């Protein structure tokens, strides 16, 4: 480097220059020559280690740089949803730049969660940062999910698609992995898969339910849903030992969000306060605040959630208004009675396994001969609402000329949607026209395929 700069008559900045080597002997020789020898440094803003050391100094400095931001965010008079947007669009990107190649301890994530809870005003006794940030807020507010999990997955997937040799390097790394903690993209991938309980078999990944996924080529929205489900299970494991969450077996994130959509905004804050694990019962507060009374203020009995909802004589008129739901009270888990948290759907793993293994199915019955010009109407349907992973889609093609169904089928795999069903119907119609060697006019009402909003659309003529 010195010879090169001298050749071009440039001055080398020795304070910013350094050299690195993976051999101890070479490092010793370089130091004797007066060079600044490093084992890790910042390269393009990210932490890069030169050797076997697992130095995370650069990443730790990024986390520490947020200490001046938290008090400002706490004092900010902006609405809470605006603070949450600032958190995921500015603060977390600043802290997690370059994290895709840097393995970090879980303690860093816990510290960032705690600071975020304080800044957003959610730090109440008993409140779980994982439940609050990862389940009840936008999932990207949880630093552990979006920038520790999702950003790593998308960056890794992009590199595999961009550089074919990257997949082979990944396979070689996994074949020779000896369990030693290391740095780099492959070690980072192992770290997050361990947190999500995923299994790696290059290039596929199996989730905790034993379903194998071609995640490199999978639809990104489907992968995002799978990652959110896995992260929700991790959040559950963080709180499953709590006595007030007894009877909780996983958390059904979709039911929680669907219920929130039916609650008025001014009541939603109270619901979320219940669901984030905040201590509600007086006996819980009385353990650290002796001024708290454990007696009911209306009847003088022992105060608890059970007493307030079912046993207080002074609330009988209220109980009569909710008689139907109180009849089922004894069948609910303690987690649902106190914190309104529903357990995950026990049938979801088996459904996911069947959907993953199922391929597209379709049939084409015998049909009468078509004239020289036939009109084919295509349509797709989808059931499952807003829950992408639960959706089931089917399609059909009808010949208006012969007044009969010429092809129909059902989609397979996860992430079924109506656009994919409409496209499959168009493909079947084209195949039919090619097979019978006739001219065909294909009609569709899909905006996704034709980009029109004025009713059925005439496709190109063969």
What can you tell me about this protein's structure?
The chain is α+β, with helices and mostly antiparallel strands. The protein folds into three domains: 63-239, no CATH class; 243-339, no CATH class; 358-458, Ribonuclease H-like superfamily/Ribonuclease H (Nucleotidyltransferase, domain 5, 2-Layer Sandwich). Helices cover 46% and strands 11% of the residues. Strands 6-9-8-7-10-11 form a six-stranded mixed β-sheet, covered by helices on one side.
**Dominant shape:** flat
End-to-end distance: 65 Å
Would you tell me the structural class of the helices and strands?
A: alpha+beta
Task: Round the Cα radius of gyration to an integer and report it.
Answer: 29 Å
Task: Determine the number of helices (DSSP H or I, runs of at least 4 residues).
Answer: 21
Helix % is 40-55%
How many structural domains can be distinguished in the coordinates? 3
> Mean pLDDT score, rounded?
87
β-strand percent reads 5-15%
* Low confidence ranges: 457-462
Kindly state the number of beta strands.
11
The major pleated sheet works out as: 6 strands, mixed
Spatial order of strands in the largest sheet: 6-9-8-7-10-11
């Amino acid at each position: 480097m010195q010879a090169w700069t001298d050749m071009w008559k440039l001055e080398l900045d020795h304070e910013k220059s350094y050299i690195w080597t993976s051999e101890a002997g070479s490092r010793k020789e370089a130091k004797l020559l007066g060079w600044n020898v490093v084992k890790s440094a910042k390269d393009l803003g990210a932490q890069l280690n030169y050797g076997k050391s697992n130095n995370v100094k650069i990443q730790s400095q990024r986390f520490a740089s947020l200490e001046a931001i938290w008090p400002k965010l706490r004092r900010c008079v902006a609405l809470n949803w605006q603070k949450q947007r600032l958190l995921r669009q500015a603060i977390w990107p600043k802290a997690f730049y370059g994290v895709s190649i840097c393995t970090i301890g879980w303690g860093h994530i816990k510290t960032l969660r705690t600071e975020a809870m304080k800044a957003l005003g959610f730090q109440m006794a008993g409140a779980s940062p994982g439940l609050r940030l990862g389940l009840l807020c936008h999932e990207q507010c949880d630093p552990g999910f979006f920038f520790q999990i999702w950003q790593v997955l998308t960056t890794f997937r992009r590199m595999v698609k961009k550089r074919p040799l990257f997949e082979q390097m990944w396979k070689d790394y996994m074949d020779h992995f000896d369990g030693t903690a290391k740095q780099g993209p492959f070690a980072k991938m192992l770290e997050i898969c361990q947190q999500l309980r995923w299994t790696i078999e290059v290039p596929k990944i199996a989730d905790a339910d034993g379903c194998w996924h071609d995640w490199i080529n999978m639809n990104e929205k489907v992968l995002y849903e799978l990652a959110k489900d896995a992260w929700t299970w991790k959040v559950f494991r963080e709180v499953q030992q709590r006595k007030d969450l007894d009877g909780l077996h996983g958390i059904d994130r979709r039911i929680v969000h669907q219920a929130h959509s039916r609650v008025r905004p001014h009541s939603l804050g109270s619901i979320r306060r219940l669901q984030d694990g905040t201590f509600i019962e007086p006996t819980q507060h009385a353990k650290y605040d002796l001024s708290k009374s454990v007696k009911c203020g209306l009847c003088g009995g022992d105060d608890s959630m059970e007493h307030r909802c079912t046993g207080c004589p002074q609330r009988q008129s209220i109980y009569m208004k909710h008689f139907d739901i109180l009849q089922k009270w004894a069948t609910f888990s303690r987690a649902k009675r106190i914190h309104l948290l529903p357990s995950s759907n026990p049938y979801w793993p088996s459904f996911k396994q069947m959907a993953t293994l199922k391929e597209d199915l379709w049939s084409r019955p015998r049909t009468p001969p078509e004239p020289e010009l036939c009109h084919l109407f295509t349509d797709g349907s989808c059931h499952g609402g807003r829950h992408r992973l639960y959706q089931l889609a089917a399609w059909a093609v009808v010949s208006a000329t012969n007044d009969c169904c010429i092809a129909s089928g059902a989609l397979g795999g996860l992430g079924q949607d109506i656009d994919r069903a409409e496209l499959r119907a168009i493909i079947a119609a084209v195949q039919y026209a090619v097979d019978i060697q006739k001219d065909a006019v294909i009609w569709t009402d899909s905006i996704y395929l034709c980009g029109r909003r004025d009713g059925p659309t005439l496709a190109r003529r063969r």
